[in-house]
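Figure 2 data, in text form.
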Amino acid sequence: MRSIEVQSPGLLTTVQDLGRQGFGPIGVSPSGAADPISLRLGNRLVGNAEGAAALEMMLLGATFFFPEGAIVALRGSDFGATLDDVPIQPDASAEVRRGATLRLGPTRSGARCYLCVQGGIVVEPFLRSASTHLLSGLGGFGGRALRKGDVLRIGQATEKFRRRTIARRVAEQLASREVLRVTRGPQADWFPEAPHGEFYAGVYRVGEQSNRMGLRLEGAAVPQAKGRQMITEGASLGAVQVPPGGAPIILFVEQQTTGGYPKIANVISADLHRVGQLRPRDEVRFEQVSFETARSLLIEQEERVTSTGAILE
């Protein structure tokens, strides 16, 4: 079986697929790719199923050696990748010759880049998923981020190399944006000034302590009505909860599955991939949309991502 050798692991490189859905009732969050759209498109570039396991890199990329060669694609943020010191085009498939080295540096744009390899990354599944859940140390490659010297197995090649690229219009439509669209949260009426108060009028900065569990936002505190208390309840991916201090937190892919803080809003499904590309110190604003609009935007995005015209040959 073919393999990839890790010569330098980067800052936080993990095996991820589309996550383990349906285990929230037993306290297991989905994990999976922080930017699932990039994972899906990257896999399509190399001829994989959309949910095949790939490598997610954050802020600083890794260096990989391919002893038997491979067909690869990079999708997500631009990490200035080179193949044997020659720049490699992102958003396109590439053939890696036997004995070649792929190097990725610091990000030039967003937070994460995905290395998709034809055949996928082969690891032992945990609860039907290859995704690494860092907080619990389960799934992926030993339940942890990659280290120097790790050797990853690659699945069997499915076809010969075919040059594929992502259509420019699709890439532009999926690009990062400073405004995250949200729907009303279950406790939105606990915040007397919503939807026209500080939360929607203000600009927030992503805090340094943000991670795959949640993005802590810095900015104007969000006041809430006094004397209100809630019991712990289920928490959804993308929920924007407001602790007593008033600093919002966007719950993300390794979130706790229940929580006792009121939730003013929820990032719509069509914008969750954009949350995965937010870096510390990035600025973001919120725009409220209706549930009907959120549904329409998701349908439009799915049609765009899954269309035959999204990938050019």
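Caption note: The chain has two domains: 3-166, 179-308.
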